[in-house]
Design goal:
- By secondary structure, this protein is an all-alpha fold.
- It folds into two domains: 34 residues, no CATH class; 59 residues, no CATH class.
- Helix content is 57%, strand content 0%.
- Helix 4 runs antiparallel to helix 5.
C-alpha cells in the first residue's frame, strides 16, 4: 500500500492536471453526468495500457480488449473502439501476434 506522502503527491498531481478541464466538464463529473473513471479506462486502452497503467499492447486481439470486455462488457463502445483503433494502428502485423 502506498504511504501517505506518495498518496498526497499523486493526489496533488491529479488535482493539477484538472486545471486543463473546462468548468462545464468538471461540473458534469462532479454531478455524475459523466464518468471520469470510464473515460480514463478508455483513454488508457487507446494508449495500449490496462487500468493499472501497464503496457499490454494495442492490437484488437490484445489484453486491452480483454480487460475492457471484462470491466465494461463485451458489447461496450470502448471495446469496439479499442478493436477498431488497434486493427487500424497495426495492419502490417500478422493476425494473433501482439
Amino acid at each position: 500500500m502506498a504511504n501517505d506522502t506518495t498518496t498526497r503527491d499523486a493526489t496533488a498531481a491529479a488535482a493539477d492536471s484538472l486545471q486543463v478541464f473546462q468548468s462545464e466538464t468538471l461540473a458534469a463529473a462532479a454531478t455524475g453526468q459523466i464518468d471520469l473513471n470510464d473515460l480514463a479506462r478508455r483513454e488508457l486502452a487507446q494508449r495500449g495500457l490496462n487500468s493499472a497503467g501497464v503496457w499490454v499492447g494495442n492490437r484488437g486481439d490484445c489484453l486491452v480488449c480483454a480487460v475492457l470486455a471484462r470491466e465494461l462488457g463485451p458489447e461496450s463502445d470502448a471495446v469496439a473502439s479499442a478493436n477498431a483503433m488497434a486493427g487500424a494502428a497495426h495492419p502490417e502485423r500478422e493476425e494473433g501476434v501482439n
